[in-house]
Amino acid sequence: MKTYECDVVVVGAGPGGSMAAKFCAEGGLDTILIEKKAEVGAPLRCAEGVSKKWLEEVGIALDPLWIRADMIGAVIKSPDGTQFKLDESKAGTEVGYVLERHLFDKALARDAVAAGSKLMMRTSCTGVIREGGRVVGIKVKSMGEEAEIRAKAIVAADGYESQVGRWAGIDTNVKLNDLNSCIQYRMVNCDADMEYCEFIIGRSIAPGGYLWIFPKGNGVANVGIGVMGPLCKGGEPKEYLDRFLAIDPRFKDSQAVEVAAGFVSTCPGLDCAVDDNIILVGDAARIIDPLTGGGICHACRTGMYAGKVLVEAAAKGDFSKASLMPYEKMWRDRMEDKLYRNWMAKERLAELDDETINELVRLISTSDIEEVNVYNLLKTVKEKFPKVVEGFEHLI
Fold first, then answer.
1. Between the chain's N and C termini, which has fewer beta carbons within 10 Å?
2. Rounded mean pLDDT, 305-312
3. Which range has the worst mean pLDDT, 1-5, 232-236, 340-344?
4. What is the dihedral of CA 386, 387, 389, 392, to 10 degrees?
5. How close are the terminal C-alpha atoms of the chain, in Å?
6. Which of 53-67, 306-320, 342-356, 364-378 has the lowest mean pLDDT?
7. Is 223's pLDDT higher than 80?
8. SS3 call for 214
9. Residue 218: how many other CB atoms lie within 10 Å
């Protein structure tokens, strides 16, 4: 059996994994990045929408190659058709780009390789290697052959289904209420507005979640839905999505050319995403926006933090849990309050009936909000519907 030796092995070449590998390699660490699929970024598992401001924060240079559409604004719509339309001048960070996600992921993997990482494709992790009670590497199947990768530290960036963290002894279980089932079609020949992202909320539309339309130009749009499993009384997510498409005239001559489906965790992160010799990033650490299900920016941030912490740990020669705890402080200082606030908002909104949702959208559509973001929307809602924010008022 072939054995590889390195400082850090990163499992998963999505945004979180590639960012972690890049920062590890830039810091002088011998880094191996593995990807189980035959192509980085495919098949698609994402609605492809991102906000703009965080890209500079993590050092990602804009590239027209992977930006499919630059949104002018967004529309929030309730079940009765009431809508709140806002342009970028008011939307702030809530409006951004629609990506070609497979090209975006490839660009980040390219950056990791350029920094010095070794990328191994068609290489899946099949278990962890333990010695003396500590994880010292992983077992893999690479191009059909079994091998071992021995490392001083592991970065688990293997997404929602993350097994590496569980194998290493970290509890990654998710409650049913913190799990959304999603399905998305890439629709062609549709008549949706190509300059605005659209979010449609309401229990009859998408119980415990929302339905989205993310335009990609030239009559193409990602149209998808995420629903909270326990609230689905009208069928599977696909049935909700198909009903919407059947009655919306913008899609009467449209067809799906691509289907993506999967699960998204909607909890505010794990209790702890590190242990001796291991760090979990992005979806593997459940660090994802519980309200929107957006996770690309969180994956990139946590990947960057993991890389920086591992470089510091290597300088000390200490990859223990205590040495890796600065990672916990980094991501919590930057994101925890917002994630918890949005998780509470998600829980409350899931309890509301359609008429209350209609009232909420009417309220915000007539309110004078200088910059529209989740925080300011909740401030407005708090005045008329205090029960919606009960229990997390201190975060608003």
1. N
2. 98
3. 232-236
4. 110
5. 56
6. 364-378
7. yes
8. strand
9. 11
Average pLDDT score over the chain: 92
Q: Residue 67: which residues within 8 A CB-CB, separation 6 or more?
A: 97, 98, 99, 100
Residue 295 DSSP class: -
Cβ partners under 8 Å of residue 321, min gap 6? 274, 275, 276
Q: What domains lie within the chain, and their CATH numbers?
A: 2-46+102-173+269-342 (3.50.50.60), 63-99+176-265 (3.30.9.10), 346-395 (no CATH)
* pTM for the whole structure: 0.93
* 40/188 Cα distance (integer angstroms): 24
Give residue 367's pLDDT.
Answer: 76
Smallest CA-to-CA distance from 19 within 83, 110, 99 is with 110
Is the N-terminal amide bond of 43 cis, ω within 30° of 0?
A: yes
Q: What is the pLDDT of residue 225?
A: 97
Q: Copy the structure tokens of residue 53.
A: 């401001």
The number of residues making up the chain comes to: 396
Structure token pair of residue 262 = 């999967």
Single-letter code of the amino acid located at 299: A
List for the chain the helix, strand, coil content (%; round to 5).
Answer: 35, 30, 35
Pick from 365, 337, 336, 360: which is nearest to 348 by CA? 360
Confidence of residue 296 (pLDDT cuts 50, 70, 90): very high
Q: Is 350 exposed, middle or buried (0-12, 13-18, 19+ CB in 10 A)?
A: middle
